[in-house]
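Request: Give me one sample?
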Amino acid sequence: ISLIDTVCGSTCYLQIYKNAKTDGTWSTEASWTFASESECHMQTGLVVPLTGGKMYYAFASVSTNTGYLSGRLYAAGSWGGLETIATDCRRAAGFDTCTWSFVAIGDDVHIVYLKDTTFELIYKKRTAGAWSAATTVQSATTSTSTPTLSVNTANNNLYVFWAGSPTANNIYYKRNVAGTWDVSPNYWINETTAGLTGNNRLTSYYKNYDARIGLAYMTKTTSPFNVRFAFLQVPVPEPTLTIGAEETPPPQQQTIFYIQNQTGNVGIGTTSPGRRLDVLHANSAAQLRLSQSATV
């Protein structure tokens, strides 16, 4: 899916193209064009996939220093009406857009943007067809602190990254776990030696790959600049740890570590340890058995 903004004469056209292929090549399956004054003078627009062939696009338009975020839902073969997401997004210096980022989890859309004048990072969520009230993720950043949003699909936690505040030339992040954002920012990258090129020169993965979320950013304030990459290790589902439960695990689930409730015996590869430590191979042949008397 791709989004393209073109200007022909005095009319603004928002064009969305859908790729029919998934092999890295392009063949247009469908396209849509919107011509509306309310959608003029924008430089960025993004499309995110939802479930069942649905998708949502959002875009930014600007006036003086203030940006406006709007969007539409595509469902059942047609586009819905124009939705107002925010009217207080900070305009990016030198660009006809504002500073924002968004992802989708299922049919819910999540967006974070930099608020004009107060420079707060603001979060909103679209669920059941309506946008939530604004939540402050981080207060008093800088006028150029551009958020970039990622999702850990292993647990649906959100991660928002930004630069320049609380300390210049540093990159921070916060997590949203079960709908609640971290209270304090997590310090991550220190670039005080080379210096960050700008607080708006960073972008992150849309989602995790394996147990990592990647971030690209720029350092140095004069040419030649550096483009640097870092990744954040994020939680992924772990092997089952069973403690004190007497029920037998399902056949497809292998218990790797077990503590017997009544005796305190420890089993590795078994749920029936007969010694203080029982280590069994996958073929159920005893490999190591230790008791208090050190009998092996």
In short: The longest strand covers residues 66-75. Residues 150 and 206 are 5 Å apart (CA to CA).
